[in-house]
Amino acid sequence: xxHHAQGQDxxxxxxxxxxxxxxxxxxxxxxxxxxxxxxNTKIVVTGCASEIDGKRWMELPGVVRVVPNAxxxxxxxxxxxxxxxPPSRHARxxxxxxxxxxxxxxxxxxxxxxxxxxxxxxxxxxTRARALTENGHREIVLTGVDIxxxxxxxxxxxxxxxxxxxxDVTGIxxxxxxxxxxxxxxxxxxxxxxxxxxxxxxxxMPHLHLSLQAGSxxxxxxxxxxxxxxxxxxxxxxARSLRPDxxxxxDLIAGFPTETDALFQETLSFIEEQAIPFLxxxxxxxxxxxxxxxxxxxxxxxxxxxxxxxxxxxxxxxDAFLNRFVGQxxxxxxxxxxxxxxxxxxxxxxxxxxPAPLRGSILPINVHALSDGQLLGRRxx
Length: 381
What we know:
iron, pyruvate-formate lyase- activating enzyme, 4Fe-4S, rSAM, S-adenosyl-L-methionine, iron-sulfur, 24% strand
């Protein structure tokens, strides 16, 4: 992701990602393209890929500096010593509460780029959240590499942090969780405060995006994930018993090493049986230096084919899920002149002829149809 630095018109900042080799390759291409188009522009690189091997990024044309991840969120790094948060241009505000990861999944390079898990102190999270709501944001999304591992100074967990945020920052109208490890929502051993919020707190959005990765227990074990399919199924049953219209998302890797046709079918069947509507599907991508890269590989063509089958199943689940909202009125956070998302993270497009609503508004929308994976709706009079 490339940005022109504010107040530094002759500088381009490239924030790199290391989650797949494709993401890293695209960042390198963006840097070369930026240098070709603006040969006199200084390029600053930051993010996980540059953290892993900063020297290689410094060798790219136009790159004058590599900024460590630990420094990239500090205003002083970019020549701005003013305290506080920069004004965001997004209707939905992201609040990073955690960095790094203590787990060593066999496919993942992230811990080598971001280090071990580090949690934002609750007082700092409250200050940031308050600044965001005072800046007009009505929805806040808690983000991090592994937000399930957030821990307070005296041992509080993520659920307690969410309860404290909602109690102390009354301006938060919507609190949403980003991708989360399913282990934290195990009905028996998971975070009791998080379950309490899902049951009792309407300001916590009825939307869970799971770092699932596979629906086959053997593949999950080879990935060194900490959940199994039976516990995830139990968690989904419990979540839907509390909020029947809960929006469920999941990250999935297609064609992980050693995945046979039968093992892939286990994942496909699990996704269909659990009716998970919002899938992020990635064909497996080797990361040199990870244990998975040394395992017997699935041919690239097969990875792509399996990813396509998972996406098709996800689209079918999505349409079945969204169809339940046709004829209902949903409160929608407006993000562009004609689009937004409901509390369940259902995508909604406005079809009325009224003037464009104010970005960041939460409006009641009458849903009248489903088309191309999104709900169509009109504003109530």
